[in-house]
Amino acid sequence: MNGWTGKMLRVDLSAGSTSIEKIDEEILKKYLGGRGLGTYLVYTEVPPDTDPLGEENILAFCTGAMTGVNVPTGGRSSLSTLSPLTGTIFDSNTGSQFGVRLRWAGFDALVIKGISPTPVWLEITAEGATIHPANELWGKEIPDTISTLKERGTSTVSIGPAGENKVLFASIADEKGRSYGRGGVGAIMGAKNLKALRAKGKEKPGIANKDIFDFVNYEASKMVTASPRTSDALPEFGSSVLVNIMNEYGVFPSRNFQRGEFETAYKISGEKLKEDYLVRRGACWGCPIGCKRVTKTKDEKGEGPEYESIYALGSSLDIDDFETIVSANYLCNRLGMDTISCGATIACAMELEERGKLDTELSFGRADLLLKTIEDIAYRRGLGDEIAEGSKRLSERYDMPEVAMQVKGLEFPAYDPRGMQGQGLLYATSNRGACHLRGNMLGPELLGAPKMLDRHASSGKAGVLIVMQHTNAVIDSIGMCKFVNYAIGDDFFARFLTSVSGIKYETQDLQLAGERIWNLERLYNLRAGFTQKDDNLPPRFTEEPLKEGGSAGHVVHLDEMLTEYYRFRSWSADGIPSEKKIIALGLDTLEMEQEDA
Length: 597
Hints:
Elements: E1 7-12, E2 17-22, H1 25-31, H2 34-45, E3 59-63, E4 77-82, E5 89-94, H3 97-104, E6 109-113, E7 120-125, E8 128-133, H4 142-149, E9 154-158, H5 161-164, E10 172-173, E11 179-180, H6 185-191, E12 194-200, H7 210-226, H8 228-237, H9 242-249, H10 270-276, E13 278-282, E14 292-296, E15 301-303, H11 307-313, H12 322-335, H13 339-354, H14 370-378, H15 383-387, H16 391-397, E16 406-407, E17 410-411, H17 421-429, H18 442-447, H19 461-478, H20 490-501, H21 507-527, H22 539-543, H23 558-568, H24 579-584, H25 588-596
Parallel strand pairs: 1-6, 7-12
Antiparallel strand pairs: 1-2, 3-4, 3-6, 4-5, 7-8, 9-12, 10-11, 13-14, 14-15, 16-17
Helix pairs in contact: 1-2, 2-19, 2-21, 7-20, 11-13, 12-14, 13-16, 17-19, 19-21, 19-23, 20-21
């Protein structure tokens, strides 16, 4: 079978058992692998009322048809689950080699359930899985854990103290800081007493039509080289190239989104990172772009920070001490925490202090307290124990939910939607909460890719966003990186998938698959109790115009965009997919099975 292996590795930590199962070929064809396959597995195996930190929740590590295939950016994999932070269906995507090795070991998916009575780590080979004791690893930071388990030809991911202590935004990371980062997936591993996973595999995926594949790969590589975004900007400065650009547009958040610009942004820009901290470029497996930054402070060497981390640990906290920001990024990576939710929840605490709701020294601009605060969160000490629950729970605890910059419990990334109407609609409708990786409108609204749209216009944004949401679901499912979409489009993804699998895919087939995945995620969240009211934004964005910068005077006109969005999706005014749409996507049988369960 080309394109996929058709095999899934299952581990039950409660029973201490492992098994290898076949995956129905039709499921792989319809959901493509990766995020799509993970969505199907969570939908069919995890009831929405399941305790996310309990035995019945699963961790579904899923590879795609391009994972481990020598295509530009073919090194991605997804992890799907029920999020303890948001209560939504959730997937987290990474460029760690763990997914590549899992695929080379011969598996499209690794599904873990149950809770081990004692700490363990999991070894995956082509023969299956072996459960090893991990008592001596428990309590170690991620780099120490991985160095202990390191073996030639393998890739390891681990949780740190944050995951062990069930911080609700704990991550799972490899030795380079590439993470299954958002949604608290590390807390689930911690709850399962699962410290680490190591995969070893060397069987490269087969190609159904090598001649066509080689030609498509050659053409795609030329386009990646020709695009100024993938050949110049991202390799030269990484994602941090956006700091000065977003600040100029007035959409670079500071002081917990109270402002859309940061007066000293130049101090924490991609240019400054290159000048003072860069050692060399880095890249995920199979990636010609090389957007990663290997950096060094006076005390430490590591990767990053990325643009999102610079915002979350810098401007959002009113901190421009770049040495502290870089060190905070390293610390989050070592302890195993999502930098976005970590920084955004600290910013929430700082605003609570500013408004007199929280009696603490932690306030905007206190760079001297940042590293200690991050450690307190990971070890759940003092105020850190409250911050570890995320901004939604923290703000509600102090009766001021409006200062939590979140949607469906997930904290905002680094783009103020008051200067990007489509981005506001994206945040509100994203199935996993506020997220720029579900159809980022940065391209059409600010960068002119694939074409420039009026960023302040609300009419007509729904249709563009929906197409991008579907495309992003496809990219997450086949195992490639979204950055490559700046150079190649759906036609190349379809040609790659056709040549690798031997199954004919047209661009419309991929859009249909993306729509199927998106709607299945929506149906799960509806079963979990989410409604149209959750497709919303904090009132700051819809009621409080920005006062300064390149987006001054603007708010998000969400209601009119939502009406258009629901209509374009063939959903009801309450945001519920119509029966006709469910049938057209082939989801009616699944729906009936869940109703009967």
